[in-house]
Amino acid sequence: MSPPSRSGRAAGTVLGSAVGDALGAPFEFGPPGAYSARFPDGAGLMCGGGGWDPGEATDDTQMAVLVGESLLERGGLDLPDVFERFRRWAAGEPKDIGLQTEEVLTGGHPWDLAAPLHFRLTGRAAGNGSLMRAATSAVYFAGAGRAGTMEAARRLAALTHGDRAAWEGTAVLHELVRVALDGADPTAAVPDVLADVHADHRERWATVLAPDWHPDLATEFNGAVWPCLGSALWALRTTGTFETALAAAVDLGGDTDTVAAVTGTLAGAVYGDEAIPARWTAPLHVPLPGHGDRVLRAPDLVARAEALAAGPAHRRAEGPPGRPDGPSTGTATGGQPTEL
Ligand SMILES: [Mg+2]
């Protein structure tokens, strides 16, 4: 089989994330091994359960789609617009929403203060909620280079997560996707990526991204940002196909929809959309509460991925968009990440 095209990898990133989310959702908070017990022949199905219909994507994919639609409709990174889309979605009573994300989005504070205020009050903001929605932005900003895509990731993460650990993790995921879209091996890129992780957070990220790290070594529940990304990279590294990577991720138990969504983001970028089984994409559907109650299907996600992959180059041809203000949390380390 010939290697996937760049557009196939971009489609795989967005579709892979959504498929992982929907595949893992019925197993959320379950024990390790539940997936392989349910599907002993290894050929897992979109089975539904736990309040989810077969193939129904959860908040992970819903938020990723909202980020992607903002990037496309605003022609770049418009943080207040993304926050407003999130707020409308949260007010539309999605079936699931992360605790941290819900508190930030429903607290009534402005877009640039909500997350830092919440973090100051609670000290808790290192969940995987910004990692889970990064597939669309990772495709869009891949053309911005390593520094550009990592900075965009930090800003998007900071909308809901005040802890820099979440920003750095999302930045790492963005960069690993960029590497994979170029046809290189993201697992081999980890040392280079770590060099661009904020120094205060580098060691902890180096631990969970190391080649000998195993999910059993996690010191937190995999709803936290570190073991979530560590587990996704482990699933990618220890398997050889899209399907087996996702099976390994869901079989870890715990926050299965998000660990599998992040795994699907990476595995989709590596293997491309043609490696994703049709029995998973056919029932896939993404409801969008608060946004006209639209329901997207796999072909809609592929079309968005293709538009996102053209992102920054397309914008350059059209002229610069309005420059959004950076967050007041001090995430900017020099200039706008989207100055392309
Ligand atoms: Mg979810």
UniProtKB/TrEMBL annotation:
Keywords: Glycosidase, Hydrolase. It is an enzyme of class 3 (hydrolase). The keyword Nucleotide-binding does not apply. One of its GO terms (molecular function) is hydrolase activity, acting on glycosyl bonds. Residues 307-340 are annotated as: Disordered. The keyword Transcription does not apply. This is ADP-ribosylglycohydrolase family protein. SUPFAM superfamilies: ADP-ribosylglycohydrolase. The lineage of its organism: Bacteria, Bacillati, Actinomycetota, Actinomycetes, Kitasatosporales. Belongs to the ADP-ribosylglycohydrolase family. InterPro entries: ADP-ribosylglycohydrolase (IPR050792), Ribosyl_crysJ1 (IPR005502), Ribosyl_crysJ1_sf (IPR036705). Residues 328-340 have a biased composition (Polar residues). PANTHER family: ADP-RIBOSYLGLYCOHYDROLASE (PTHR16222), ADP-RIBOSYLHYDROLASE ARH3 (PTHR16222:SF24). Its EC number is 3.2.2.-.
